[in-house]
Amino acid sequence: MTDINTNALSDSLLSVLRRRPARFHSLEALAKVMKVEKADLLFAIDLLRQTGYEIKPDSQGRYAFISAPDNLLAIEITNDLKTVRIGKTVYAYKSVQSTNTVAARLAGVNAPEGTVVIAETQTKGRGRLGRSWFSLEEKGIYLSIIIYPDIDPAKTPGISIMTALSLADTIQSYDSLDVGIKWPNDCLINGRKVAGILTELSAEVGKVHHVIVGIGINANHRRQDFPPDIAKIATSLRAEMKEPVRRVEFVQRFLKSFESDYRLFQKSGLKPLRKRILKYSVLLGKKVKIDLKGSIVTGTAVDIDENGNLVLDTTEGLRPFNAGEVSILRRM
Ligand code: BT5
User: Fold this and answer.
1) Domain tally for the chain?
2) Same domain, 37 and 172
3) 221 C-alpha to ligand 1 centroid (Å)
4) Residue nearest to atom 3 of ligand 1 (CA)
5) pLDDT at residue 176 in the model
């Protein structure tokens, strides 16, 4: 696990400089305000610059904040984040095996609800059923949110589709991208996968201990950045928008959207979210097949119900499914 966090002094220096961007401050004034030595400040400035911050000196040796890097640093994500709980605590890493694994460990020691684990890359990023998630360094967004929903474990499948909704709203807020949700856990743009969700839980009968909501987003990948097998099915925000996206801003918008959907979900389940989910669903009205670990059922997708099940109209009537691999058979 490689850390990329700044330290407490550089963080507070940053927040002082940032209050007045592009304005120069003398080291003497900063040292006085912050009650530290000038030498420590020079060390902190150096650390911030190494992390990618543009901090400029003038001819009189005064310093000004110019710009922040688009690195997924804890201090950047929490800076001016408009949420109450989600993302208020952030653990940021350059590289981890899987953000879901780190988050599960933190949930085991009661990290606060809304804690986010985020990384620039994952060496063992995972999808469902032991599949892997391609986690290209510094191009994507790989994050996990820890939540402790006070709900029946049977309702937890709804969390994936709820998250897909928050993600779809965030993606659509860019350039009105034509995003869709493919039940149960994908966001697509023009039929290609731009993001996937992996929800993992710890529960016992009647009680959820914690849920880790893992989200992988292809943000700034160019088409040629994907290996051939994934290139066929994947896209990125950059490939669709024809320009890079600021990942920190995307994460902040997403956390805000997630917080508001999660609040509704905790109160009333998927009921208040269903209409919006259905609006994004790419399966509704389509003839599909669902692979249930070997047995295949075909039918027309007609609904996503209040438990997050996909409802198919089959030869045996309406049937709800709470998991499975779905593919569209033909357009209707
Ligand atoms: C998913 O699984 O779509 C869930 C992916 C969740 C990834 C996040 S990243 C942060 C957190 N930490 C983790 O370790 N995981 C979560 P699934 O529906 O099983 O889809 C996996 C399949 O998607 C693979 O078998 C590939 O075919 C394809 N795939 C892999 N990487 C991809 C990518 N970057 N973009 C699009 N498709 C990809």
Assistant:
1) 3
2) no
3) 15
4) 196
5) 76
Residue 168 belongs to domain with CATH number: 3.30.930.10
- By most ligand atoms within 8 Å of CB, the mutation choice from 117, 118, 126, 133 for ligand 1 is 133
Q: Is the beta carbon of 53 within 6 A of some atom in ligand 1? A: no
The encoded tokens of residue 166 equal 């928050």
CA-proximal residue: ligand 1, atom 29 (nearest):
133
Query: Which residues in the chain show pLDDT less than 50?
Result: 332
CATH number, position 58: 1.10.10.10
Strand positions, DSSP E, the chain: 2-3, 54-57, 63-67, 90-96, 116-122, 141-147, 179-182, 186-189, 192-204, 207-217, 287-292, 295-304, 310-314, 317-321, 325-330
Residues 58 and 167 in one domain: no
pLDDT score recorded for residue 4: 56
Range of the domain at 31: 3-67
Between the CA of 311 and the centroid of ligand 1 the distance, in Å, is 24
